[in-house]
Amino acid sequence: MQLPSAAALLSLVLWSILSATTKAEATAKETTSIYDLLDSPVSWTSLSDNKLSILAGYHVIYSWPGSILPQRLLNLAEAGKVGGVIIFGENVVDGLPAQIQSLQDAYANGPAYDGTPLLVVTDQEGGEVVRLPGGPEESAKEIGSSAHPARAAASAGPTSPAAGAMAEGLIIGKGNLAPVLDVYRKEGDFDDQFERSFSKDPDIVKKCGTAFLNSQQANGVLATTKHFPGLGAADSDENTDLGPVTLDVPLKQLRSIDELPFKGAIAAGVSMVMPSWAVYPALDPKRPAGLSSKWIRAELRQRLGFKGVTISDAIEAGALEDSGSNSTRAVTAIEAGMDIALASARDVSQGKEVLDGLVAAIRDGSISGQDFAASTKRIMALRSKL
Ligand SMILES: *[C@@H]1O[C@H](CO)[C@@H](O)[C@H](O)[C@H]1NC(C)=O
Region (Disordered): which ranges (predicted)? Predict the structure, then answer.
């Protein structure tokens, strides 16, 4: 075998450095211009569809069916039009970490790369509600009713998507859509039927939720508390995935019982809050909390002081059957103060439809450029922690 000459080696090295620099410069240029857009008062309505959809991409979480991550999603990621993905049980195969890596690589190779990974979320609550192998094996209810609930919650937290074959550093950009901070009311109700609530006692939910999220975030997994302001009062058949739900709970009770664990989580620095799709007439008789600026802007952000990222529950949820198409729902949510829309119907087209809807709404001014820029910056700040 012939060894390469020193000259050939040198030119190879120079070529690599040169092409790396060119690529880095191209990336930096595109990224800088995107950052500039976030800070400058230019009229966003005059921007190209491409630029607007790169900005909108931050706000959309996509999903796909079955065991193969579709090429279309890789292409969208490379074009910078994806904010992240949600993983379901049907996606969990041995090759998943490699698929996620190729998605991250596609994004990182594209012109919109900002140096942070795409957000990869899943529902790893514990007990029966886990998507990835590796626990937590205990349900929230088992944790909350154990001898030392906060201690049990603290040790369950980091095992979430961080454990198991896939999670040992293999999935990048981890965000858990847990813990559930709903305070259930009675045996077998919506939260209790799958033991998703830590307790009927708001203090125990607060302590467990805070311990769970703190240990999880200390282990590099972003935590999400849900379903704000609380689904604890929902009966066994009041499932927002399936149809509209109205929880006629007095505001005083919502604030003293249901919101209490969220106050703890906000004080502890939780990364994300997922509002509920139930209607709470006490504050807004018309709109589900996740489509209501009274809940998201006035209550969660202004009254409770949450400064992190809000992420929607499933855009395709039955609770929103009277709220229009997927894109209309997402636009309404973002107008109300939601940062990220969860297109979780396992259909890449749904995410794309949401993306296009956001672009159109920015263009026609129904989503304010200023609000959208602030929201995009919150998501960037979140991703910089990954
Ligand atoms: C939202 O998207 C999903 C997946 O494409 C689709 O099944 C559903 O019908 C859509 N919902 C509405 C209201 O258009």
Answer: 134-159
Closest atom of ligand 1 to 349 CA is 5
Fold of the domain built from segment(s) 41-383: TIM Barrel (3.20.20)
CA distance 328 to 384: 29
Strand partners, 309: 272
Q: CA-to-CA distance for 76 and 354, rounded, in angstroms?
A: 13
Distance (Å) from CA 79 to ligand 1 centroid: 24
Whether residue 178 contacts residue 125, with contact meaning beta carbons closer than 8 Å, is answered with: yes
Cis peptide before 179 (omega within 30 of 0): yes
Closest to 230 in 3D by CA, of 199, 267, 270: 199
What is the atom index within ligand 1 of the atom nearest the CA of 315? 1
Pocket of ligand 1, beta carbon within 6 A:
316, 325-326, 345, 347, 349-350
Smallest CA-to-CA distance from 83 within 112, 114, 62, 52 is with 62
Q: Which of these, 360, 302, 304, lies nearest to 334 by C-alpha position?
A: 360
Three-state secondary-structure class, residue 285: coil
Q: Has residue 151 got a pLDDT over 90? A: yes
- Measured in angstroms, how far is the CA atom of residue 373 from the centroid of ligand 1? 27
* Prediction pTM value: 0.91
What is the spatial distance between Cα 130 and Cα 172, in angstroms, rounded to a whole number?
18
C-alpha 343 to ligand 1 mean position (Å): 9
Identify the residue whose tokens are 């672009």: 359
Q: Whose CA is nearest to atom 13 of ligand 1?
A: 325
Q: How close is the Cα of 251 to the center of ligand 1, in Å?
A: 33
- Quick one: DSSP state of residue 146? S
Of 112-121, 201-210, 264-273, 290-299, minimum mean pLDDT range: 112-121
Task: List the structure tokens of 83.
Answer: 């904010």
Residues 315, 342 contacting (CB under 8 angstroms) = yes
Joined together, the tokens standing for residue 198 give: 């830590």
Residue 25 binned pLDDT confidence (cut-offs 50, 70, 90): very low
326 CA → ligand 1 middle, Å: 6
- In degrees and rounded to multiples of 5, residue 281 shows phi and psi of -60, -20
For ligand 1, pick from 63, 326, 349 the residue to mutate: most ligand atoms within 8 Å of CB.
Answer: 326
pLDDT value for 372:
94
